[in-house]
Design brief:
The structure holds two protein chains of two kinds.
Chain A: H1 13-22, E1 27-29, H2 30-40, H3 42-48, E2 51-53, E3 56-59, E4 64-68, E5 80-83, E6 86-88, E7 96-100, E8 104-105, E9 109-113, H4 114-122, E10 127-132, E11 143-148, E12 155-163, E13 170-172, E14 179-181, E15 184-186, E16 193-195, E17 214-215, E18 218-221, E19 224-231, E20 244-249, E21 258-263, E22 267-275, E23 277-279, H5 283-289, E24 297-302, E25 312-317, H6 318-322, E26 325-328, E27 331-337, H7 341-356, E28 367-368, H8 387-390, H9 404-414, E29 418-422, E30 428-433, H10 434-443, H11 448-451, H12 465-475, E31 479-483, E32 489-494, H13 495-507
Parallel strand pairs in A: 1-2, 13-24, 16-27
Antiparallel strand pairs in A: 2-23, 3-22, 4-7, 4-12, 5-6, 5-10, 8-9, 10-11, 12-20, 14-15, 17-28, 18-19, 18-22, 19-20, 21-22, 24-25, 26-27, 29-30, 31-32
Chain B: E1 2-7, H1 16-24, E2 29-35, E3 40-45, H2 50-62, E4 66-70, E5 74-76, E6 96-98, E7 104-106, H3 116-120, E8 126-128
Antiparallel strand pairs in B: 1-3, 1-4, 2-3, 5-8, 6-7
Classes of the chains: A alpha+beta, B alpha+beta.
Chain lengths: ~500, ~130
């Protein structure tokens, strides 16, 4: 018979807090607890140790802060507002706003965003506030421009809808182009692997049954004390992808544990430090806390595939990822982290010291976080333009032995820039552009096969237009032949088709 | 010592590097090369110091190339660095590694100054020199 989730069988929260107040609670970090279990076994360790601390420090895009500015005289009902040129959400009362980590500066773009504003606020730096309003009988002012620091604010509350993923996918790139993603820089042809999460220090993985983590759990947040508000968005605990929503007073926090960041060609974000104390209330919790890096697995996904369902290249443990190299297809690939394990360890140690010093007590959650939650995708209803809707079906093709001069004539008379080259069965084997023809003339070449590009970037007719546009941008090309499953050419899609036909559809 | 060679339109077609290698008998390594129709830039590693290095440089100069000694490539601001590792695996020449304490360790000798780490750093702690 299984006992109820969250049963305080080994010790209660009250007992733990009494010990903390007396100064005799046994507190270890998750790293230390693992060693203790290895030395003396799980049963003995779970009897001895009262609390285990965890930590993680990584980019958490679903982060931001609620701010109340106080009222100016005459007062303003801010309709739009900017902090250091970063737009904040103003669909709230007159002088409340929410500054989100991924909002980007209207003047500096990717280099400065909401995450940086939060870091600068916490550092005590002066921030420029700009706001616009339409003026009402009760709020006559129409604009405001001033500077402020965190001390001028009534409230500055960090409230992050999704933090501290239990674990996360690792990333690699099968394509022949360098990719800049939210998983960092991915070199071409499986050139490297990036991962995030603290593995055996990861707060949520260490209580994977969600027996102690819930609404009201007191935590380390950004260098100060925070609380868990509830499950995070996209909480998916049945796949070990649980998340939490957290809040804390920004005024207590430190820029050492809250850092604005930029992912190149992706956007801005915020590195957030989160540490959760786990009370060893029963042996299941102890067993989860004792999990080691080699027992925590994740998938390396191919970020070269721009789809929701990226294929898994390999299942790996955090031990492998942290070793700095992972084998894929008999080749050793370098792996490195995006979250900081060094700072994660610091967080676990700091939280441990707070508890030992008696300045941090554990809070029994009012309600535990669910350990099952349906995980839904977003279905796109209605007609979305696909390649087949706008591609050109009447195509002119060439054969490898065609004479360049006659081909040039065809391109001119038909007014096309791309000439797919096919074999006798109509299968695509190359492509020629008008630029290739100019080169052919310059180098005195005669036949198409001498100048054609044989590694052709193609698309399928059922692909969404945006995916194909991104592919053309990545390869810096202006057209793609459309092929079927057996590589027979069935059409062509050019930037010309996209600009003319797509725009016309939108207008219609 | 790493040298940056700048080719002009006039000397672009000449096998300057091969000539220098055969004259000096040094195993010069090409680290990076960007050659277009009009200009060319090459980063090479010359396993020599002192007089021998001077000889190599002057051979390139006589052939009409501009030669720059590359002593330093990037600088890591340790105050800003959060030791995350985002720059580590993208480094194509393994010049950046993480030590046992997860601190970032940079090997100037190996660095070819490609700048991938500069873009990869989320907290902008790395800059090109």
């Amino acid at each position: 018979m299984s006992e109820e989730i969250g049963t305080e069988k080994l010790r209660t929260y009250d007992e733990i807090n009494q010990k903390i107040k007396r100064g005799d609670a046994i507190v270890l970090t998750a790293d230390e607890f693992i060693k203790t279990v290895e030395e003396s076994g799980l049963e003995k360790a779970s009897k001895e140790v009262d609390v285990v601390t965890t930590g993680t420090f990584g980019a958490m895009c679903s982060s931001g802060a609620f701010i109340n500015f106080g009222h100016a005289d005459p007062p303003i009902k801010m309709f739009k507002c900017w902090l250091n040129d970063v737009p904040a959400y103003k669909g709230l009362a007159a002088v409340d706003c929410y500054i989100g980590a991924t909002a980007m500066s209207e003047t500096e773009g990717f280099e400065y965003g909401g995450g940086h504003v939060i870091e600068d606020l916490v550092s005590g730096k002066e921030i420029e506030l700009r706001a616009e309003a339409y003026g009402t009988d009760c709020y006559p002012r129409r604009s405001i421009e001033t500077t402020l620091t965190i001390n001028d604010l009534n409230q500055a509350v960090l409230l992050n809808p999704r933090n501290a993923y239990e674990r996360y996918n690792a990333a690699t790139n099968s394509t022949d182009k360098i990719l800049y993603t939210y998983m960092g820089t991915l070199l071409p042809c499986y050139g490297n692997i990036t991962y995030c999460g603290a593995g055996q220090l990861s707060p949520l993985y260490k209580d994977k049954g969600f027996e102690t983590i819930g609404i009201g759990t007191r935590i380390f947040l950004g260098g100060g004390v925070g609380y868990i508000v509830g499950e995070g968005t996209q909480h998916n605990p049945q796949n070990q992808l649980g998340t939490i929503m957290v809040r804390g007073d920004l005024k207590q926090m430190s820029s050492h544990y809250l850092r604005g960041a930029t992912y190149h060609k992706y956007g801005t974000t915020l590195y957030v430090g989160v540490g959760i104390p786990l009370p060893i209330i029963n042996e299941r919790v102890a067993a989860s806390v004792a999990l080691k890096d080699d027992e925590i697995f994740t998938n390396i996904l191919d970020y070269g595939i721009p789809s929701r369902n990226r294929p898994a290249v390999k299942k790996v443990s955090y031990t492998e990822l942290k070793s700095g190299k992972v084998e894929i297809n008999q080749k050793e690939i370098r792996s490195s982290s995006l979250s900081s394990y060094k700072v994660a360890k610091e967080i676990a140690i700091t939280l441990k010291n707070w508890i030992i010093e008696g300045i941090f007590l554990l809070n029994r959650p009012a309600e535990l976080i669910p350990n099952y939650r349906e995980f839904k995708p977003l279905e796109v209803r209605g007609r979305e333009p696909r390649v087949r809707d706008i591609m050109t079906r009447e195509i002119i093709v060439g054969k490898p032995n065609d004479d360049i001069k006659s081909v040039a004539k065809i391109l001119i008379t038909k007014g096309v820039d791309h000439l797919p080259i096919v074999d006798n069965e109509g299968k695509l084997i190359g492509i020629i552009t008008s630029w290739d023809l100019a080169k052919a003339v310059a180098h005195d070449k005669r036949q198409l096969h001498e100048i054609m590009t044989s590694k052709v970037i193609t698309a399928k007719e059922d692909e969404v237009i945006d995916t194909v546009i991104r592919r053309m941008e990545q390869h810096n090309i202006s057209g793609v032949p459309i092929v079927d499953q057996s590589n027979h050419i069935i059409g062509i899609l050019t930037t010309d088709d996209i600009s003319r036909k797509l725009v016309r559809r939108v207008i219609a | 010592m790493k040298l940056k060679l700048i080719y002009s339109r006039e000397n672009l077609g000449k096998p300057v590097l091969s000539e220098v290698i055969s004259k000096t008998n040094l195993p010069i390594n090409i680290l990076e090369a960007k050659i277009t129709l009009n200009t060319g830039e090459m980063l090479i590693d010359v396993p020599a110091i002192g007089e021998k290095l001077k000889e190599v440089s002057s051979l390139f100069q006589k052939a009409g190339l501009i030669v720059k000694e590359i002593t330093r490539t990037i600088e890591i601001d340790r105050e800003r660095c959060i030791s995350c590792g985002a720059c580590v695996s993208p480094c194509p020449v393994r010049a950046i590694i993480q030590d046992l304490n997860w601190d970032i360790d940079f090997n100037e000798q190996k660095c070819v100054g490609c700048g991938i780490c500069v873009d990869a750093c989320p907290v902008r702690a790395i800059r090109m020199l």
